[in-house]
Specification:
Chain B: This is Sugar ABC transporter permease. Chain B: The chain crosses the membrane at residues 27-49, 101-123, 135-154, 183-204, 237-257, 295-314. Chain B: One of its GO terms (cellular component) is plasma membrane. The structure holds three protein chains of three kinds. Chain A is an alpha+beta fold. Helix content of chain A is 25%, strand content 33%. Chain A is elongated. By secondary structure, chain C is an all-alpha fold. Chain C is flat, with a radius of gyration of 30 Å. The two termini of chain C are 60 Å apart. Classes of the chains: A alpha+beta, B mainly alpha, C mainly alpha. Chain A binds chain C through residues 3, 5, 7, 10, 12, 15-19, 22-23, 25, 27, 29, 58, 61, 63, 65-67, 211-217, 228, 231, 356-358, and chain C through 1-2, 5-9, 17, 20-25, 27-32.
Chain lengths: 361, 317, 321
């Protein structure tokens, strides 16, 4: 099994005109399930292709178990990859597709057949063995691609948005299946997606990427509870975290007519760490309580209800606070449009970000 | 619009169904008739005319009486079409049909391979558009000029081919290639290959461009080397185009006329040494002594050879 | 940490790595940072690898080899016969003259000037009419069911497979019958009839790719079939019509056999027809032939270079669809 290290890896295209990846530093532990998460065009697929060996880094080095591999061809890395469109060979049957990597490795036919059968039954596609890929449904194709990837017992397993072409229900199903697969096989896995739900539900650690570089590496729980920057905070969670821009005044943050929040509540480290000037206060919608009466004792943010969206399981209340909209996710509410409301939240659920969007702690 | 109007309109529509059908039929006729009339008179008509006429005797351009397979038998016995004596001795002229088939046997496979080779060679190069256009240029040129260019290349004095022979020390081989009965046909076939390669390259290039790059990458990750990737992935995926390339090649070659005419006139070379079927049709039909019956038979033979292939392509899609 | 299992160039202590791990957003450059390498390293990186260089060399050699004959033709067209016979590839002391062109332009049997004009007179209508009638006929083929459709389809395929020689005899007699033999009109009609087959098939395939919903929307808006054809179908088929125009133009312009059979008066000769006459009896007048050829091929080659995309797409679609 394999442990992967990326050291200051950069990738430029078009003679340096485009920066796809810039100084990536990452350690992937042996057997770990890592997810590259980010919006489209953030360089996550390029990063995956660098690990696969389909691209060579412009700068930096990549190590598999301490062995430098950049510059080596994909076939020398013992990686398996599942492509976004599955890349099943259209002129081969399902069984031939799955057998192809073994055929190339020169595995003797008997053993090959046995392994192919094993992989196919592992993914429940043994009934499709003799069909061409064109006759399969999206989910079946997905399974064939996975079978083709696991059959050769790779040391690294790379998946490029493997679920993006499936419908919602199938995606859910394959998600748990993939997780089971990875748990059972224990292969170091890098998974690329732009879907945060996929990332949060499957990963041991999530690598959040933006503009070609890594914004945060953290286990899903930490990513949710301690987003390191405003950008990450906004990217994780649905609806995303509210970020209220305010001005730091003596000991509190002012939100104009909406009120103010006592600074001691949110920065246990002491006042000195919070610079003067503009800051953002972040609170997740699910951590906000909407009240119609001014709460006593604690400071609250004041606003007017803009819209109420009852979604059954919960209700989203959009509150206009000064010139910004704050989402609150509540189990039930009696408020109506135009109601005057007060938003409160626990001290632990609030985050402060400085002007550059970095978490203050 | 009032409700009353709506109902009126609906009723009008209701009874108008046959009217709609009739209007549609009229439209179809209006669209089809002008084109199909000209197509019928100048393409289908003459083919039928030839098919029927091939079973009649002719006086010049005038049809006479039904003679059954007379023209057919006469044509196939004609040494200008098939010359068995010379075939057995492998001496030209062997007859236009034999020579035309020799074109097929040499021209088609070689130009197919060259076309594929060039498509693969150019596929990932910068400036491939220009390179492809250079190779394709010959295909856009009038074929009569191709024939004249061949004569120029093979000219004993002015021809660069003979100069090349002199340079590499084969000066003894220098000759007027297009006028030497025993080798001229090969010289002309080389010219045909020169032109057709561009066309084949174009077809293969577009087939290669249609291959999903992730298939190749997937094979790369699976550990396949260059050679395996070609045989296992690329070749199976461009193979269907090969059928088109081969069949278009055969159709092109069975129609070859201009190149041969440019080099050898309506006789098809000295003593008809490299005549092809098209040349025989022309001479029989339009140069005295006029033999319309034979011209029709030969032209039909050309069609009969390629028609099943054309239908095969049509079926394939 | 995994640091002890590998030995990277400059091992970073885990603690400092933690703070360095994330770059501030403004640290990401818009373009690749300029490297400090010396000129030699940069040059080495810019030059492709040996095998790739070799590939370029082969590719360029092949492509150049492929146009050498045309290069020779072009050179010959500007040089006196004596120099051509000595070999056009000798370039030292080269004489450049336009004499070949002027002689070809007013060639006595059939002046090229006149022949090119004749070719244009035949080609333009033959192309335009085929485009219009072809598009009209292709429309019902793509959209409606009508009797004999399959039969017509089969006939079109048959004609596409047929050699031009096969229709020559029938058309010869037809044109004599209706008095259009040896006239522009006669040749134009033959070309139209011959071209319609592939054009109808080609445009039909293209029209099948246009969503029917567009026409249905137009019908609901009250357009008649003819209006739909004129305002929806024709504009949407522009790329295919351009392809048809280039390919048909090239075919008619380049055609040799049809003019040879149907144009008998020297003043009606088409350009491709005149060229073989120029080869003469005893010594081929290479300069004359070359100049005439260059003039004749200039038009289709220019058209190809300008409309290359349409030409190539059209050729590929015509034979593979």
């Amino acid at each position: 099994m394999t442990q992967i290290t990326m050291e200051d890896v950069s990738k430029y295209f078009d003679d340096g005109e485009t920066v796809a990846n810039y100084r990536l530093n990452l350690e992937v532990e042996d057997g770990e399930f890592i997810v590259f998460l980010g919006p489209s065009g953030c360089g996550k697929t390029t990063a995956l292709r660098l690990v696969a060996g389909l691209e060579d880094p412009s700068e930096g080095a990549i190590y598999f178990d301490g062995q430098r591999v950049d510059g080596r061809s994909p076939s020398d890395r013992n990686v398996a990859m599942v492509f976004q469109n599955y890349a099943l060979y259209p002129h081969m049957t399902v069984a031939e597709n799955v057998a192809y990597p073994l055929k190339i490795q020169g595995v003797p036919p008997d053993e090959r057949d046995r392994k192919v059968e094993e992989a196919m039954s592992f993914l429940h596609i043994e009934d499709q063995a003799d069909k061409p890929p064109a006759e399969l449904s999206g989910g079946q194709r997905q399974r064939v691609a996975l079978a083709r990837a696991i059959v050769r017992e790779p040391s690294v397993f790379l998946l490029d948005e493997p679920l993006s072409n499936l419908d919602a229900k199938l995606r859910q199903e394959m998600r748990s299946e993939l997780k089971r697969l990875q748990d059972e096989l224990g292969i170091t896995t890098i998974y690329v997606t732009h879907n945060q739900e996929e990332a949060m539900s499957m990963a041991h650690r999530v690598v959040v990427m933006n503009r070609g570089t890594i914004r945060q590496v953290a286990p899903p729980g930490e990513l949710y509870s301690r987003p390191r920057t405003e950008w990450v905070a906004r990217f994780i969670g649905s609806p995303p975290m509210n970020l209220l821009r305010g001005t730091r005044q003596n000991g509190s943050i002012e939100f104009g007519e909406a009120g103010s929040v006592d600074l001691r509540r949110t920065s246990p480290g002491g006042l000195e760490t919070v610079p003067r000037g503009t800051v953002s206060l972040g609170v997740r919608p699910e951590d906000i309580t909407v009240e119609t009466d001014p709460p006593s004792g604690t400071a609250a943010i004041e606003g007017t209800v803009d819209t109420v969206e009852p979604l059954g399981e919960y209700t989203i209340v959009n509150v206009a606070v000064a010139d910004q909209i704050v989402n609150a996710k509540v189990s039930s509410t009696s408020v109506d449009r135009e109601d005057r409301v007060y938003l409160t939240f626990d001290d632990d659920d609030a985050y402060l970000y400085d002007e550059n969007g970095e978490l203050l702690s | 619009m009032s409700l009353r109007d709506h109902i009126d309109a609906l009723e009008a529509d209701g009874v108008a169904w046959p009217d709609v059908d009739r209007r549609k039929a009229t439209a179809i006729v209006v669209f089809l008739v002008p084109g199909l009339t000209l197509f019928g008179i100048f393409s289908v008509g003459p083919i039928v005319y030839s098919a029927v006429g091939s079973f009649f005797s002719w006086d010049g351009f005038t049809i006479e009486s039904f003679t059954g397979l007379d023209n057919w038998i006469r044509t196939f016995a004609d040494p200008l079409i098939v010359n068995w004596d010379n075939i057995l001795r492998w001496r030209f002229p062997m007859g236009a049909l034999t020579q035309n088939l020799l074109w097929v046997v040499l021209h088609v496979p070689i130009s197919t391979l060259l076309g594929l080779g060039m498509a693969l060679l150019f596929v990932d190069l910068k400036g491939r558009r220009i390179l492809r256009s250079m190779v394709f240029l010959g295909f856009t040129t009038p074929t009569i000029i191709i024939g004249l260019v061949l004569m120029f290349i093979y000219d004993p004095q002015a021809g660069i081919f003979n100069e090349l022979l002199r340079v590499i020390g084969l000066g003894g081989q220098v000759r007027n290639w297009t006028q030497s009965p025993q080798v001229a046909i090969y010289a002309l076939i080389a010219g045909g290959i020169w032109v057709q390669t561009g066309f084949n390259m174009l077809l293969y290039s577009s087939a290669l461009a249609a291959i999903d790059p992730s298939l190749i990458e997937s094979a790369k990750v699976d550990g396949a080397g260059r050679w395996r990737r070609f045989w296992d992935i690329t070749w199976p995926l461009v193979r269907p185009v090969t059928a088109v390339v081969v069949i278009m090649g055969i159709i092109w070659v069975m129609r070859v006329f201009d190149i041969v005419y440019a080099a050898g006139g309506s006789a098809g070379g000295p003593n008809h040494a490299y005549s092809v079927l098209g040349i025989e049709v022309y001479r029989a039909a339009f140069e005295p002594p006029i033999d319309y019956g034979k011209a029709m038979v030969v032209a039909l033979v050309q069609l009969v050879i390629v028609a099943p292939l054309a239908l095969y392509i049509a079926r394939m899609n | 940490m995994a640091d002890d299992t590998h030995s990277p160039g400059e091992p970073t202590p885990a603690s400092s790595r933690e703070t360095d791990q994330y770059l501030p957003p403004d640290a990401i450059p818009e373009t690749a940072p300029r490297r400090e390498d010396d000129v030699a390293t940069r040059l080495a990186a810019a030059v492709p690898s040996m095998p790739r260089l070799l590939k370029y060399a082969i590719a360029i050699t092949v492509a150049v080899l492929w146009i050498v004959p045309f290069l020779g033709l072009f050179m010959a067209s500007f040089r006196p016969l004596g120099e051509i016979l000595a070999g056009w590839w000798h370039v030292e002391g080269m004489t450049i003259t336009l004499e070949n062109y002027t002689r070809a332009w007013s060639y006595q049997t059939a002046p090229m000037g006149r022949a090119l004009f004749n070719t244009l007179v035949v080609t333009v209508p033959a192309v335009l009419v085929v485009m219009l009638l072809g598009a009209m006929a292709a429309y019902p083929f793509a959209r409606f069911e009508f009797p004999l459709k399959t039969t017509l389809f089969f006939l079109i395929l048959l004609v596409m497979a047929a050699p031009p020689e096969l229709v020559a005899m029938g058309n010869y007699n037809t044109l004599r019958e209706i008095g259009l033999f040896d006239s522009y009109m006669g040749l134009i009609l033959v070309h139209i009839g011959w071209g319609l087959g592939w054009v109808v098939l080609f445009l039909r395939n293209y029209l099948l790719g246009i969503p029917v919903e567009l026409e249905e929307a137009a019908r609901i808006d009250g357009a008649s079939r003819y209006q739909i054809f004129r305002t929806i179908i024709l504009p949407l088929s522009t790329p295919a019509l351009v392809s048809v125009a280039v390919i048909q133009f090239t075919w008619v312009w380049n055609a040799f056999f049809f003019p040879l059979v149907f144009m008998r008066s020297p003043e009606l000769y088409l350009a491709p027809q005149v060229l073989p006459l120029m080869t003469g009896r005893i010594q081929v007048e290479w300069g004359l032939v070359a100049a005439g050829s260059v003039m004749t091929m200039a038009v289709p080659v220019f058209l190809f270079l300008v409309l290359e995309r349409y030409y190539k797409q059209g050729v590929v679609a015509a034979v593979t669809d």
